[in-house]
UniProtKB/TrEMBL annotation, chains A, B:
Keywords: Glycosyltransferase, Ligase, Phosphoprotein, Pyridine nucleotide biosynthesis, Transferase. Belongs to the NAPRTase family. InterPro entries: Aldolase_TIM, N/Namide_PRibTrfase, NAPRTase_N, Nic_PRibTrfase-Fam, Nic_PRibTrfase_pncB, Nicotinate_pribotase-like_C. This is Nicotinate phosphoribosyltransferase. Its EC number is 6.3.4.21. It comes from Aeriscardovia aeriphila. Pfam families: NAPRTase (PF04095), NAPRTase_N (PF17767). Residues 158-356 form the Nicotinate/nicotinamide phosphoribosyltransferase domain. Transiently phosphorylated on a His residue during the reaction cycle. Phosphorylation strongly increases the affinity for substrates and increases the rate of nicotinate D-ribonucleotide production. Dephosphorylation regenerates the low-affinity form of the enzyme, leading to product release.
Length: 457, 457
């Protein structure tokens, strides 16, 4: 095992060092045992988009389940003087005992939506900050881009081909998150195996070039993969390649792919040519730096599916979701729970745990209610509004340490994709605009805490 | 072992499916055995920057060494009908036998620089496309951002704190790449363990908030971590916090950190206050969405070090390097090597393998020579220019399957950082401009191939 493998053998070091130094100090002074509520939220939507898409929960749950430094990792922490022998002992017995509530995968979110809530001791909650943010920030960025791209594709299937433009593990997470956003499959094999996703892909230009000529390349591919394969037709001359492709594979040829040039006009010419050759069922796939904006411009082109790469895995200009993880409530010396928040001039946040509901009017969402207060008061707010056209947004993903593993299955991933489209369709239609602007619905923060929104300082 | 762990147990599925389908077809028709040269290069520099920084090679080498699907992965490939029994047999015996030449880690690069060159059979070379690109594209994007940020920091140490804004594995790669670019350390523990990096970090706002008041938090931290610790002073009121910090820790307090607000003015006030309190050696660290542009604006502020997050791990606006992997030369049916290239209207590339030299005039680089031709002709070009003020840029990282593991050590990583600063200092001074523009030196592509640059079609 090399040092990278040792460092990643458990997710317990996928953290910032301060999480362990805070644990160290808090175990010494006793505050590590204080019951606490941490929340993940985002102050605004990247790029002034109209909505964000939550993704990563199903990937996060097994990471939290396996979060415990192993022997070699503990030795590293001791050798670096990050933790003491007492803290090592605490970590040896550590498993997450707390409760995590969260927006479902595929749920849309808005500024200040309480996307994920960790209720546990301070010690346990503080260790998970970086890991939770890493997973949600990246996966949600990709799912949000995917959702917009799928909307722009207007029903044509979109496939993830972006792995090469992202870190090799990000590629796997991106493939998964793209499904949440509505993608149909991925070129990435590790993602296909990890999450049981449809995989796609046939040949690169190098395959044509390694052969003595294009015809031999096409013949080889059809011999190996059958006539239903997709032939890449833009290595030399597209028109000649299409003629050759139909000669080699016959009119049953599954598809052609075009990866360069003016894709709309090339697809138009290719369709006409294929039809004239009798290959009326041969599909046209286009690829090459696509995103929601370029797809809008391809809306009238006779394209059957899209391969999307760079812009998908980099969040179409916004590669992170800017979510933060904040302590909002904790036990005081007297044992009572107390809302807390940073008070300094900038980046102020709302104290107390949040409940979240989305309200509807004639089946169209019109507001995100974020209700801040004690558990009792937030629950009372929910009861008070029962019967109204309002839907609670938080589900329980981990209940006192008990992980709901049904949220981490391949079935859950496909369900998240369906769920996302339903939620998106229930948003005001402005949500489908790609112009920067206000969130599709406003977030209304209501304070029902004892101090009327004033946290102690 | 869950399915994610199974899918990533070896790097062999961190690929696009078409690499295996191409292998399948090429093994059937015999072209898999053709000697080939693939090259990694970038058609332009993202954001019209003046230079790029190569990073990832030391991380890539062990991945290539371990690139062989294990039993479960082979079963997956068979079950999905990606490969046949014959291809499975070939893969069971696969190890990389080829030669890889590359720009050193820390080397600067320009459009069309042959950053990495794979010389091997088509079958072996085609399998590595996505993995090589994933590593180099992301790591180089981060190293390039890091290099610019370090330049803007004008000698003040920069620390990576971006892990939470990137995928949890990207975070580790980013910490490593930031070192290549000149960073001094990271908050990420997994990276610190994997690559033997200095780790930093003390406390978050939550640590102050979990305590009944700021004084208790400071006292707890100083008790646990000593007076040399860095106290976070912007949870409530910065001025009061600094007074409190010095009361608690004394004038030997190691440092304070400010994470919000107008950082320049706050640092100025904090410095005056600390000096007035006698804490003249207490350092000031600032953090909060920093990048090369904001650092330029902090140049006159009394800041001692920077914590850089989001913008570092997302490549400061350019999260990928847009490098591609192309077949440029291969054996023909007659056994001779032959330059090849895509010919279609867009994204054309240069056939034949490339040699690369950087020329200097009075110790300042003035051109990148990229020489395209047969191995013999490229070597002859190099000999012909021996004695001139010119430096070859490609080193051998893998020689006929033999990995130079000295390139993958922690020492090599620190050496890469030094090497990078030397190369950067030898570039025209425009390279340190943050304004978009032409590359700092031109890339001159010389064709010495038999056909004078014309590849066959």
């Amino acid at each position: 095992m090399n040092t990278f493998e040792a460092a990643t053998a458990t997710p317990a070091l996928m953290t910032d060092m301060y999480e362990y130094t805070m644990l160290e100090a808090a175990l010494k002074d006793g505050t590590a045992q204080r019951q606490s509520v941490f929340e993940v939220y985002s102050r605004h939507l990247p790029g002034d988009r109209r909505y964000g898409v939550v993704a990563g929960l199903g990937r996060l749950l097994p990471l939290i389940e396996n979060f415990r430094p192993n022997e070699a990792q503990l030795k590293f922490l001791r050798d670096r003087h990050v933790i003491s022998a007492d803290t090592q002992k605490w970590l040896e017995n550590y498993t997450f005992h707390g409760t995590i509530r969260a927006y479902r995968e595929g749920e849309v979110y808005f500024p200040n939506s309480p996307i994920l809530q960790v209720e546990t001791t301070f010690g346990e909650g503080t260790l998970l900050e970086t890991l939770i943010l890493s997973v949600l920030n990246y996966d949600s960025a990709v799912a949000t881009a995917a959702s917009r791209i799928v909307t722009a594709a207007q029903g044509r299937p979109c496939m993830d081909m972006g792995g090469r433009r992202a870190n090799e593990y990000s590629a796997i997470a991106a493939a998964r998150a793209s499904i949440v956003g509505g993608f149909a499959g991925t070129a990435n094999l590790a993602a296909a195996m990890a999450y049981d996703l449809p995989a796609i892909g046939t040949a690169a230009h190098s395959f044509t070039l390694v052969h003595d000529n294009e015809e031999q390349a096409f013949r080889s591919q059809v011999d190996a993969l059958g006539t239903s394969t997709t032939l890449l037709t833009d290595t030399y001359n597209v028109e000649e390649a299409i003629t050759r492709a139909v000669e080699v594979a016959g009119t049953d040829l599954g598809g052609i792919r075009i990866d360069s040039g003016d894709l709309a006009s090339m697809a138009q010419q290719a369709r006409s040519q294929l039809d004239a050759l009798g290959a009326t069922h041969t599909k046209i796939t286009v690829t090459n730096d696509l995103d929601e904006y370029s797809l809008l411009n391809l809306r009238d082109a006779p394209v059957d599916s899209y391969g999307v790469g760079t812009r998908l895995v980099t969040g179409s200009g916004h590669p992170t979701s800017e979510m933060v993880y904040k302590l909002v409530e904790r036990e005081s010396a007297d044992g009572r729970m107390q809302g807390v928040a940073k008070h300094a001039a900038h980046k102020a946040s709302d104290a107390w745990r949040k409940g979240a509901w989305r309200s509807y009017r004639y089946n169209v969402a019109d507001a995100e209610y974020v209700v801040a207060g004690s558990q009792r008061d937030v629950e009372a707010w929910g009861k008070q509004h029962e019967g109204e056209d309002m839907r609670p947004l938080l589900i329980t993903a981990i209940d006192h340490g008990d992980v709901d593993s049904s949220l981490a299955t391949p079935q859950a991933l496909l369900a998240a994709r369906d769920y996302h489209r339903q939620q998106l369709e229930a948003l005001p239609i402005v949500s489908r605009s790609f112009k920067a602007g206000d969130p599709a619905i406003p977030t209304l923060v209501e304070h029902v805490d004892p101090e009327g929104g004033q946290a102690e300082s």
